[in-house]
Design goal:
Blueprint (H helix, E strand, L loop, with lengths): L2 H24 L2 H35 L2
Length: 65
Amino acid sequence: MSFTDKIKNKAENATGVAKEKAGEATGDDELRAEGKAEQTKASLKDAGEKIKDAAANVKDAFSKD
């Protein structure tokens, strides 16, 4: 995973947390749900990037002699 992707995922997660907390504070269920959705999306992206990294590591391990 590139450093840029990690930063983007962390920023998206932080935005989601902020929206969720703002929704909780104001009683806005829609904003809270939007925040949770953004956090989930960021987590899924992060997991996908980790899978790509693992696949690259496996490829590298088998291509070395």
